[in-house]
């Protein structure tokens, strides 16, 4: 206390101490920085509690959390789809399945069943009313599975695509939104299963169902109904004005030239034009070639890359250009007012045989019709992507189809015919390896080097053993000589 009083007096009487106090808060001047952590009084009074809490966290909480995370994560595959769902899709999906059967297939997934099971016994009367309307209006095919959980999910999906949400209770709408949030990943899982089994039509119909879920329409609806305020009258007028591919032609037309909107108010027309600017207005260009070697190492006798020979690795370059997006901009988010979450545009590239009977097959059977399938998630205005496949093993003319399928918009898919000629491999020049490559053939392999090293070690060990034996013999001879000399002395 006396020290504090003395420093206080000094701070009031001494000019330097007073200046230090005003400037640094201490008469002695600038002090070292002190950092401390404020702890509750109970921890300060009982330091053992800190140790106990530390042990509980390290020994119990962290191992339990890691164990729960691992047990949950090992249930999912690469596409965030549960392995149980893959098993269900493999068992239930058939080659004849079309869009009308897809709601029931997706509703049977483990993810959807887990969502529905929580509220299975709720809103029974509302669900029965919805089921009765579906059967009366023939809005869905007859369910193949009478499981109440699958049936409930099937009905909710149909209510979404038929715009019947007003018949749903809040609990039913909540379940539907949860299933829709999972649906894109589940559809990808269905596409993967269909591709593995070489089912082109099933693959395409699964992707069409993805479009229906995102846009909240049914596959029988006109694609123009994806635009706001477009009813039956507007659909009829637009189709009459543009004849074929009405949606694509409508999107390509300038704002002032968009026909069929005369029945809408100025505000509604503005909404339609604003939405049309978001929809993708694309063109697709393709090029088929065989990749050449670098210019420095390429053999001049080889043919150009546009000639395809038997068993060549062929590259199909696909360029998708968005004409409604600036080259320096990215693609806007999908216009999907009926979908519960934000969705980014994606495109599927599917290379398959021509479906006409005269089309030649690359595979060994009629089932093998898909040669490459990939999803593009690039959000740039101009997308360049390459598909690779093996050329047929026989000479002839071949025809393929490239399906460019949107995962979120209906009526904007493209189908491009691709024709090419496979030339005989005998026309290729005889391959002559580079001299340096020939030298490498004379070099010992890694295995041979290891064997040689082991043989050297074994030979050195044998030599050491022989040296030890000979040295022991010399020592023995010397000891015997010493003994003999001692005997002679005696």
Summary tags:
490 residues, alpha+beta, five-stranded mixed β-sheet, three-stranded antiparallel β-sheet, 8 strands, 47% helix, extended
Description:
The strands form 2 sheets. The chain has a 5-stranded mixed sheet with strand order 2-8-7-4-5. It has a 3-stranded antiparallel sheet with strand order 1-3-6, with no helix packed on it. The chain has helices at residues 2-13, 15-24, 41-45, 48-73, 83-92, 102-107, 110-117, 124-136, 148-161, 170-196, 200-215, 232-242, 246-252, 266-276, 435-442, 446-489; strands at residues 282-290, 308-309, 313-322, 347-353, 370-376, 382-390, 396-406, 414-423. It is an alpha+beta fold and 490 residues long. It contains 16 helices and 8 strands.
Uncertain stretches of 5 or more adjacent residues: 294-303, 356-361
Q: Which H/E pattern describes the elements?
A: HHHHHHHHHHHHHHEEEEEEEEHH
Radius of gyration: 39 Å
Head-to-tail CA distance between termini:
103 Å
Global shape:
extended
Average per-residue pLDDT, rounded, comes to 83
Describe the strand arrangement of the main beta sheet, using strand numbers.
2-8-7-4-5
How many distinct beta strands?
A: 8
Helix content: 40-55%
Strand content: 5-15%
* Number of separate helices: 16
SS class: alpha+beta
Major sheet attributes: 5 strands, mixed
């Amino acid at each position: 206390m006396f020290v504090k009083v003395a420093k206080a007096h000094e701070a009031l009487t001494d000019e330097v101490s007073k200046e230090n106090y005003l400037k640094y808060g201490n008469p002695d001047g600038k002090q070292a920085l002190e950092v401390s952590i404020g702890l509750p009084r109970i921890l300060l009074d009982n330091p053992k509690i800190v140790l106990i809490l530390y042990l509980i966290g390290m020994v119990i909480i962290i191992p339990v959390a890691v164990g729960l995370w691992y047990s949950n994560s090992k249930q999912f595959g690469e596409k965030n789809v549960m392995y149980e769902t893959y098993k269900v899709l493999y068992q239930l999906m058939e080659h004849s399945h079309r869009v009308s059967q897809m709601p029931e297939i997706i509703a049977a997934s483990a993810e959807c069943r887990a969502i529905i099971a929580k509220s299975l016994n709720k809103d029974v009367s509302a669900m029965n009313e919805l089921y009765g309307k579906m059967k009366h209006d023939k809005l869905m095919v007859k369910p193949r599975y009478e499981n109440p959980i699958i049936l409930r999910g099937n009905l909710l999906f149909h209510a979404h695509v038929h715009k019947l949400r007003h018949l749903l209770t809040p609990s039913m709408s909540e379940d539907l939104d949860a299933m829709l949030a999972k649906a894109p990943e589940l559809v990808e899982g269905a596409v993967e299963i269909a591709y593995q089994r070489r089912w082109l039509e099933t693959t395409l119909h699964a992707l069409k169902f993805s479009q229906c879920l995102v846009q909240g329409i049914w596959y029988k609806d006109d694609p123009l109904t994806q635009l706001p305020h477009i009813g039956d009258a507007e659909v009829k007028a637009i189709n009459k004005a543009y004849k074929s591919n009405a949606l694509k032609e409508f999107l390509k037309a300038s704002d002032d030239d968009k026909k069929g909107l005369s029945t809408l108010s100025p505000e509604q027309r503005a909404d339609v034009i604003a939405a049309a600017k978001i929809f993708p207005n694309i063109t697709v260009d393709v090029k088929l070639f065989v990749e050449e070697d670098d210019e420095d190492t390429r053999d001049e006798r080889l043919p150009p890359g546009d000639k395809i020979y038997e068993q060549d690795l062929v590259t199909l370059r696909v360029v998708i250009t968005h004409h409604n997006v600036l080259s320096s901009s990215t693609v806007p988010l999908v216009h999907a007012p009926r979908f519960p979450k934000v969705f980014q545009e994606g495109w599927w590239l599917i290379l398959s045989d021509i479906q006409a009977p005269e089309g030649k097959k690359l595979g060994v059977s009629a089932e093998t019709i898909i040669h490459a399938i990939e999803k593009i998630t690039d959000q740039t205005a101009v997308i360049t992507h390459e598909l690779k496949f093996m050329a047929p093993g026989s000479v002839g003319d071949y025809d393929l189809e490239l399906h460019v399928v949107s995962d979120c918009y209906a009526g904007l898919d493209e189908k491009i015919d691709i024709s090419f000629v496979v030339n005989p491999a005998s026309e290729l020049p005889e391959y002559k390896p580079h001299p340096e490559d020939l030298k490498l053939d004379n070099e010992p392999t890694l295995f041979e080097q290891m064997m040689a090293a082991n043989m050297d070690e074994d030979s050195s060990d044998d030599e050491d053993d022989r040296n030890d034996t000979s040295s022991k013999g010399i020592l023995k001879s010397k000891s015997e000589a010493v003994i003999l000399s001692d005997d002679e002395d005696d």
